[in-house]
Structures are given as C-alpha cells and as structure tokens.
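Our collaborator T.R. sent over the components below with a one-line note: 'Predict the complex.' Nothing else. No constraints on interfaces, no templates requested, no preferences about which chain binds where. So this is a plain run: every listed entity goes in together, and whatever single assembly comes back becomes the starting point for the next discussion.
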Amino acid sequence: MAEVLVLVDHVDGTVRKTTTEMLTAARRLGEPSAVFIGTGFDAARDTLARFGAVKAYRIESAEVTDHLVAPAAEALAQLVERTSPVAVLLPSSLDGKEIAGRLAIKTSSGVLTDAVDVQPTDGGVQVTKSVFAGDFEAVCASTHGSPVVTVKPNSIAAEEAPAELADEVVEVTVSDAARTARIVERSAKQQTGRPALSEAAIVVSGGRGTGGDFGPVETFADTLGAAVGASRAAVDAGWYPHSSQVGQTGVSVSPQLYVAAGISGAIQHRAGMQTSKTIVAVNKDPEAPIFEMVDFGVVGDLFQVLSQAADTISGS
Amino acid sequence: MNIVVCVKYVPDAQSERSFEPDNTTERESVDGLLSELDEYAVEEALAIAEAGDAEVTVLTMGPEAAAAAVKKSLQMGAHKGIHINDEAIAGSDAVATSRVLAAAIDKIGGVDLVLTGLGSTDGTMSVVPAMLAERLGLPQVTFASELSVDGGTVRIRRDGDVASETVEASLPAVVSVTDQINEPRYPSFKGIMAAKKKPVETWSLADLGVDAGEVGLGAAWTTVVSIEQRPPRSQGEIVTDEGQGGAALAEFLTSRKFA
Ligand SMILES: Cc1cc2nc3c(=O)[nH]c(=O)nc-3n(C[C@H](O)[C@H](O)[C@H](O)COP(=O)(O)OP(=O)(O)OC[C@H]3O[C@@H](n4cnc5c(N)ncnc54)[C@H](O)[C@@H]3O)c2cc1C
Ligand SMILES: Nc1ncnc2c1ncn2[C@@H]1O[C@H](COP(=O)(O)O)[C@@H](O)[C@H]1O
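Returned assembly:
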C-alpha cells in the first residue's frame, strides 16, 4: 500500500492531539508514515504506533530545528521524492501551513489548507474545508503532484489502530538558503493547567462584556474542564493574552461546545468558532448577533449567569 | 532601502460573499477594499521609512478594481504603486499568485524588504508569503508581531501557540506582519491629495515574462469539486435571565452531557 506522510506535531516528544487525528485520516488514504522532526522520539513512539503509524522517519539534526520552516520543508521534500506518497498531511498551524506552502512549490504539488475532512478518491484525495467565515463548505482536490494537505485540529475524531512501527533515522541535507532565518530566542508559553485552545473539547470565551474581569469566565471554564478564549476586543484591551484570541486573526477553534460570554459575534470572531458543534452565548443584549447562531442562549448579565451555572453544576 | 508591500484587494467581509458558477470567488458585484490585514504591512513600511530612509512601493495583483487597494496605500503614504492586471490571472491559486508576485519583485529589482499581511481576508491561507520566500530564495521571517530593522538585519517576534520566538535574518527578506504589530493610520486629507500625483504602473503578464498558461484557473494545481452554502445555523432556545438563567444554562449543558 502507498505511503501517506504525516508531519508529527509535538512538543519535545509529547505528541499533540492533532497528530493522532492526522494519523487517523491518513489510514483512510494508505499506510501512515510519521515524520518526526526534533528531539524526544522515544516519548512519542508509543502514541504514533497506537494510532497506526507503520513507519517513522526521524530527523534529529539541529540544522532543521534551529531554523524557521524552510529546512522542515526541505526535509519533507526529500521524503516526498523518495516515497512518492499519496498525500502529505500537516497540522493547520502557523508553521504547518508555511511548510505546506514551501513544500508545494518544491514538489510542484497542489496545496489544500484547513481541511476539516479528508477522504480518498480513486487514486487521490479530496478534502472538505469551510470558507468565508464558515458560511460555505467546499470540497477540493489537488490535480498536481503529491497533494499537500493541512488538517484543522479537532475536525477528525482520532481512533486507535495499533500498528508495528519501524523507525529510521533520516539524514537530510539542508541548503544554505534554508538556514537564513534563525531562531535566536525561544520562550515557552506559560502553562495554565487548562487544555490547549486549539485542541480543547470545550472552549469558554470572554469578550468586552467582561469589563476586564475574566474571573467568572475562568471559573466556569474550570467547572467544565474547558480552555479559555477571548475576543479581540478583550485582547486589545490587554485583559487576556493574544494567544487566546479566537477568530480570523487568532486561533480558529472547532470544539464540541463553545460558550461566548459578553461577545457580540462580529464576523471576524465567528470566523474562528462557527464550526463548533454546539454553541452557547450569554449576553445582556437580546439583539446581539451571536444569538442568531446559538443552540442555547441566555439574555442576561454574564457575572450572574455564569456563576449561577457554575454553582449549579458543581453542586449537582 | 527599498521596501515592497504586497497588498490584496478583497471582497468586503461585511457584504454578502458568493461564488461564480466555476467555483471561483465572485468579485464583480461585491464591494471590495484593501485587505484590512495588509494595512498593517503598509503601516509598518511607512514607519520604517519615517524612521530612516526608505522608498515604499505597493504591489497588487488583481482585476481593474484592485487599483483601489493601491490607491488607498498611496493615500496612507506609500510612494508608488504597481498593479498587475491581466485577464489571464483570473482564478489564480496561491501557487500562481506567488509566481506572479515573485516575478514582479524580481522586475522591480534591488528590493531589501518584502512586507506582506498575515493572510488575505478572503482566502486566509497564509501561504503566499512562504511561497514568495521559497521562489525568491530569500529568508522567510513571518507572523511578526514586532519588527526591527538594524543595518542589514531584520529581527522579529513571532507568537506561536506553544512558544514565543525571536527570529533573525539578513536582508533582503520576506516578512509578514500580524495585526498586533501596529495601529494602521487613516489617510489624511493631505495624503489623499498627494496620492493623486504618485506614480502607478500597470503591468501585464507579458511585462513580467510570465506565460499566461502558468496562471489562472486552468493552471491551478487544486480544484474545487463542489461548493455549498452551509445551512444557516438555526437559532436554538433563548431564555431571558430573571434569576434562573444560570440554572437553565446548567440544565442545558447537563442534558447535552457537557456537565
Ligand atoms: C481585520 C480584523 C480582524 C479581526 N479579527 C478578530 C478576531 O480574530 N477575533 C475577534 O474576536 N475579533 C476580531 N476582530 C474584531 C471584531 O470585528 C470585533 O470588534 C470584536 O470581535 C468585538 O469583540 P466583543 O464581541 O468582545 O466586543 P463587542 O462587540 O463590544 O461586544 C461586547 C458584548 O458584550 C455584551 N455585554 C456587555 N456587558 C455584558 C454583561 N455584563 N453580561 C453579558 N454581556 C455583556 C454586549 O451586549 C456586547 O454584545 C477583527 C476585526 C478586524 C477589522
Ligand atoms: N493578489 C495579491 N496581490 C498582492 N498581494 C497578495 C495577493 N495575494 C496575497 N497577497 C499577499 O500575501 C498575503 C497572504 O495571502 P494569503 O496567502 O492569500 O492568505 C496577503 O496579506 C498579501 O500581503
């Protein structure tokens, strides 16, 4: 069976959920081969095998990891050349999309970003993506080369399918040109103890309506084991870090449940959460556009509503 | 220093957006404008020019109406504009767009810094800047939320979801900026008047030496098989809080097994 390359998304060997989702999608197309760049492979090995990776290509050279996306694209291009995969799957993150863009040019392949579904067609791949702030759903295909697909986190349900995994250390040659942008400093994001925004099953977001007090939003989120998000208005006011911004210019989320508290529902915000399975809003303005798209809405003051809801849930 | 800012003309996100029968974005009837995300790139270029000595050229590829994106950038303060307008480019995908923009940047020549937005507000693929860097063989320094140019070196801060990085490269380089980087200015009356006298060149594919067969819908490496409007989300139950709103919310979440 033909190979499908999956670029492993991990932090020092801790495999992120996106990777297990991509491996699940890859199994529909062929035999998943994980491409692991960086250190910590031993920690990742079990998870990769459990989700069906048959092979793992390990690329450990610092040449690749100390630089921005260009060397990773070169490494993948060399693997594409060698394995002629059915497709290359990457996470739809900042880096993932950029690696995809460069890889597409290098291998003369079509690139499809932000796939929410991936399906085989005879001899190829079709992906579904949502466009124009989620108002439309498009089915797209690549007509050239080995399709390069970035997959949106939380869109495909990960399923285990244990496999025997054989790993191989791959030496890649990195050109001088690819080494021109250098990461000179890196500081890890502070851990909040909450799930990561892009992979969380539940997201509770606060907006301008919080007036700067995210206390009730955080308490409610913790009651549900949720990640905390924010609207741009809340981020611009300095109430919450930019990495928590949901929307067109922030993170795009697609959780099982999205709760918007004190958020009006501007199109740029909707662009980042409209594909959530269930949507709930709390807003004191009954005319707020967010109510047009909710499964359940409460017109009221978020301070009262969220704390009563949290108390009711923890009490029961 | 020579700065080129790539700006895109996009359909207004506030208007009703739709598709042509061939599944390309309908660009005729809807109002368009300079992509808001590219205003940050224009602003950043102007700030660099004001702090030192730089010439800012804005570059757009798009239909007749896309001239409006160049005009707005000139009104903000850019020095000159280049508009690539050719019937053959309609329906171009990111791969073809980067091909044309890269050819234009080559033709301009002597460029020290290529600035772009973080993504276009219609396609939001955020791949064109990386593709440009790949094609031009230049360092790629993308998603800058802070930017400084010092001598021949550009340095940025890039905030990812697990880490914040400082990235450095020597010029020339391709840099994309986020909406965190600055506050774009509004054109002043003086800027609007001055823009009328600023030079704008219109180039065709032939001017760039790009073969029409390499671009446009027919040459795209990807196709849209089908496109469907999502059924609008129907409104569910709305309750008004009269003392029990939070309890009602808790009950809804419990009934759906979220709590
Ligand atoms: C290029 C561009 C990109 C953008 N990208 C993003 C993005 O990625 N993400 C994003 O979110 N926005 C984005 N925006 C901004 C967007 O247009 C809106 O301005 C923003 O989403 C508004 O945030 P908000 O809903 O919190 O604030 P507002 O629109 O001011 O809404 C606040 C809401 O809170 C309600 N409220 C007030 N007090 C209470 C209370 N006590 N209890 C309950 N409800 C209360 C009000 O009724 C109101 O509906 C972008 C804009 C542009 C131009
Ligand atoms: N047709 C175009 N003309 C000029 N610049 C463009 C065009 N398309 C994309 N760009 C630039 O590339 C950036 C990213 O676009 P995209 O990859 O389409 O999301 C934009 O913010 C622009 O700076």
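Summary for T.R.: The mean pLDDT of chain A is 93.
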